[in-house]
Amino acid sequence: MTSLDTFHSRATLDVEGTAYEIFRLDAVEGLERLPYALKVLAENLLRTEDGANVTADHVRALAQWDPAAEPDTEIQFTPARVVMQDFTGVPCIVDLATMREAVAELGGDPKVINPLAPAEMVIDHSVQIDSFGLASSLETNKEREYERNAERYQFLRWGQGALDNFRVVPPGTGIVHQVNIEYLARTVVTRPVAGADGETVTQAYPDTCVGTDSHTTMVNGLGVLGWGVGGIEAEAAMLGQPVSMLIPRVVGFRLTGAIPAGATATDVVLTITEMLRRHGVVGKFVEFYGEGVAAVPLANRATIGNMSPEFGSTAAIFPIDDVTLDYLRLTGRSEQSIRLVEAYARTQGLWHDPSREPAYSEYLELDLSTVVPSIAGPKRPQDRIVLSRAKEAFRQALPAYASQTSKPTPVTLANGTVTELDHGHVAIASITSCTNTSNPSVMVAAGLLARNAVARGLTSKPWVKTSTAPGSQVVTEYYEKAGLWPALNELGFNVVGYGCATCIGNSGPLPAEVSAAVNDADLAVVSVLSGNRNFEGRINPDVKMNYLASPPLVIAYALAGTMDFDFATEPLGQEPDGKDVFLADIWPDPAEVQATIDATIDREMYASGYADVFAGDERWRGLDTPEGETFAWDEDSTYVRKAPFFEGLTMALTPVEDITGARVLALLGDSVTTDHISPAGAIKADSPAGRYLAERGVERKDFNSYGSRRGNHEVMIRGTFANIRLRNQLLDGVEGGYTRNFLTGEQETIFDASQAYQAAGVPLVVLGGKEYGSGSSRDWAAKGTALLGVKAVICESFERIHRSNLIGMGVVPLQLPAGQTTASLGLDGTETFSIEGLTALNEGVTPSTVRVTAVKDDGGQVVFDAVVRIDTPGEADYFRHGGILQYVLRHLARGE
After folding, report:
1. Residue 291 CB: number of other CB atoms within 10 A?
2. Using CA atoms, how far apart are residues 4 and 520, in angstroms rounded to an integer?
3. Closest Cα partner for 619 from 175, 142, 136?
4. Cα torsion at 231, 234, 240, 244 (round to 10°)?
5. pLDDT at position 435
6. Helix (H, G, I), strand (E, B) or coil at 213
7. Does the chain have fewer CB atoms within 10 Å around its N or its C terminus?
8. pTM exceeds 0.85
9. 181, 392, 529 from 71: Cα distances, Å
10. Where do the H-state alpha helices sit in 532-574?
11. Residue 504 pLDDT > 90, yes or no?
């Protein structure tokens, strides 16, 4: 029950005879002019006002919001629910299980550690593409998934039974974000609460969420305000802690026109990504408005929202309108819930009015008719390339990956085919990822292109590893209904699993003979995927260059077999009569794409597909399920181990100390991603993590991936900064997880060096450039950093989620003075660092800057004031406690 209602906003909304308690935004003058997303935040504050965390002044701050001002007002946002995928979700549940034991040790009740907000996990990140191009591939990969991950899945089944408000969507269902928009998202939430007179009433309010995956923003396409957070923030939200944030700037993005024939939703997304990354939207909300919004199908809205992390924005949202209602109806939502969504949105001023322009902080505009076919790469999603100059762009990029322009290398494939591999050859072509497999327009286009290609006698090149990993089983159903599977299978694009596959690094190994040729000749081969991430070292350890493309273009590149290709002038192959076939000859007509969608996709597909979504198949139901309020840890487990973060925790705080005598663990450049810091893909046999597993009797074939082993901190600390493409500038020309150990002067793995430093009592710092920590909302990028003994990260700028995660793990994020870089300051990483001024936090004061002194070997000093990026009082509280989970645990143990 809300304890306060200063603005008398509590009211009743009647929807065809059913009464709902709501908190009316029109009760507060000034809220009506706000952008849609800030109205959602305003309702959240009205409903949760308690006079302590949320006050009337917070509501007034929103009502008086100055679009032009820089954010400076902290608010406490309480998301309606938390959504997780299993890579990031397993360590969340490990932490909750460990917190139950820690609370008991502090004299509390273990059962206070329970999700208070609904928490839903979709197991979607564990399927790997071991088998491909066969009718049996789906079943083979599913079998291997359960063999590898049985321990993790048993642990999650324990959590589902032991924890309240926690539900698990079993493996093989789909990708979390697609399941979210197709089933989990409420758009308007209802729940029973105690009303003002003490009787139970049904409350209605906007659906909001935070998720342990950066692409949680896909749900923004449904008008649901949500974004990705690290696992540690998600755990705090589950345990009732509001999300501390500054009222953000909101970028209004006006859409006009319509997508031209030949372009796809993927091309729109890559264009918007390039525009917004160039404009600069880190930490901001992006909101789409204008006459063109009504012409954007819901699937395209979700595709755009999904890519918000690639822009750098916190959220990228579309308001509610008739398109929203039509999608809710199509996907099987009840008529009563749809009527509620419309009535609530219209009553609260959340219904999109294309003739009205809300107040925005900044403005951008895109005429959709100007969008052209595009790809992005070879290592960042914002690096868009117009398709017509893709060959030229590849050749310009190649020298960074290979010392010569061509290196034809003979290879004999397993089936006896003798062929050649060369730089630029497409080793992987994968239709994968939530971004595009949720969008029927591009998926149907891919199927029709495959049909047209097979009819002309075209085939995929024999060295290409081809795959289709849909985001939900609905895709398979409409492919079957449209008769598109035979052609896709003919080209090798058989379904390999339902989950986040190639995009997260679960591409599986290349065929042995291809891998050997690539590595022996040091070839710069490429992947082409319909995903949202193409960071270095992410997709496959054998593949140096990675390109994002629409699903039909993924197939086109499989037919071409190389990135060194011009679709306009070079044929994909020949018909039986010898006539050249070009991409334009097989590209599907947009009218046929739409007609196919209209004829094959219906409400019943979604209703039946999600009718029993939490039950799982016989494999899931047959797993042994541990029981009990606390989890019985297996000391021999290499997958799930008790987290170390609460060892020795007392109710008393350990004072914050200044940092003295610190050495540099890594000196890094710009755009260091969380993939560089905490890889998700393959574990190399000669890496610290590989050696750890081998020492415990795990065979190489069972190493699985870093992502799947995030429930074991021993693997993850050894994997931190272990990306094979990491470039630590403390070393010359060395790639991978290595550093210089200044205690010995020798090159060592980062893990081994950190162990030596910690044994010697030497604190560590990391130096970086711009956009440090961009990419996935990966809590282990911060957890591993902390466990390596890093006390501070000093760089030019941070991505939002990683900065927050560092604070949540007790690592201080420091920003170099404006306009300065490590190079301009004369830092080369060999210095010894001291950081003074952090102790002010013990007095409840967050210093705006601290004094950093770097002493060189010859005694010379570099002194500068670094900006302390602890941005809110809430973050300062977390840091004082040593981390957000320690803060929450102490409060729960006290019964607060």
Report:
1. 12
2. 70
3. 142
4. 110
5. 86
6. coil
7. C
8. yes
9. 30, 43, 37
10. 551-560
11. no
pLDDT tens digit string along 734-744? Answer: 999 999 999 99
Whole-angstrom Cα distance, residue 727 to residue 732?
9
Residues 821-855 pLDDT 10s: 999 999 999 999 999 999 999 999 999 999 999 99
Outline where DSSP puts E strands in 257-407. 285-289, 315-317, 362-367, 374-376, 384-386
Widest Cα–Cα separation across the chain:
83
Rounded to whole angstroms, the Cα distance separating 246 from 77 reads 10
Cis peptide before 378 (omega within 30 of 0): yes
Give the span between the Cα atoms of 72 and 871, in whole angstroms: 9
* Residue 316: per-residue pLDDT: 98
Decide if pLDDT at 42 tops 90: yes
Contacts by residues 142-149 (CB-CB < 8 Å, ≥ 24 positions apart): 142/171, 142/172, 142/497, 142/619, 145/171, 145/497, 146/171, 146/619, 148/702, 148/704, 148/708, 149/639, 149/704, 149/708
C-alpha closest to that of 242 among 208, 219, 276, 270: 208
CA distance 246 to 243: 10
Among the listed residues 583, 587, 565, 550, the one whose alpha carbon sits nearest the alpha carbon of residue 262? 587
Helix (H, G, I), strand (E, B) or coil at 586: helix
Which residue bears the tokens 């996935």?
776
> Residue 750's closest CA among 696, 799, 796, 790?
790
Residue 3 pLDDT level (bands cut at 50, 70, 90): low
Domains of the chain: residue spans and CATH = 10-64 (no CATH), 66-244 (3.30.499.10), 248-372 (3.40.1060.10), 374-609 (3.30.499.10), 659-675+728-880 (3.20.19.10), 679-719 (no CATH)
Q: Which helix (H) or strand (E) holds 166?
A: strand 166-169
Per-residue pLDDT for 2 more than 60?
no
What is the b/e burial string over 73-109, where b = at least 16 CB atoms within 10 angstroms of the residue's CB?
A: bbbbbbbbbbbbbbbbbbbbbbbbbbbbbbbbebebe
pLDDT at 668 over 60: yes
Q: Alpha-carbon distance 816 to 867, whole Å?
A: 6
Q: What tokens were used for 27?
A: 């009760």
What is d(CA 428, CA 530) in angstroms, rounded to the nearest whole number? 11
**DSSP E strands, 639-745:** 659-667, 738-741
For the chain, give the mean pLDDT. Answer: 94
Q: Residue 355: CB partners within 8 Å, gap ≥ 6?
A: none
pLDDT tens per residue across span 269-302: 999 999 999 999 989 999 999 988 998 999 999 9
Average pLDDT over every residue of 542-564: 97
Q: Distances in Å between the alpha carbon of 511 and those of 464, 507, 815? A: 9, 11, 45
- Inter-residue contact 509 to 412 (CB < 8 Å): no
Question: Helices in 622-736 by DSSP H: which ranges?
Answer: 674-677, 688-695, 713-719
Summarised one tens digit per residue, pLDDT across range 508-546 is: 999 999 999 999 999 999 999 999 989 888 899 999 999
* Tens of pLDDT, residues 401-448: 999 999 999 999 999 999 999 999 999 999 998 888 899 999 999 999
55-61: list long-range contacts, CB under 8 Å, 24+ apart.
56/4, 56/6, 56/7, 59/6, 59/7, 59/28, 60/28, 61/247
Give 3-state DSSP helix, strand, coil % of the chain, rounded to 5.
Answer: 40, 20, 45
How many CB atoms are located within 10 Å of the residue 759 CB? 10
Phi-psi region of 433 (alpha: psi -120 to 50; beta: other; left: phi over 0): left
Are 564 and 391 a contacting pair, CB within 8 Å? yes
Left, alpha or beta for 160 (phi > 0: left; psi -120 to 50: alpha)? alpha
Per the DSSP assignment, residues forming a β-bridge with 774 are: 673
Tell me 180's DSSP state: I
Give the span between the Cα atoms of 504 and 681, in whole angstroms. Answer: 7
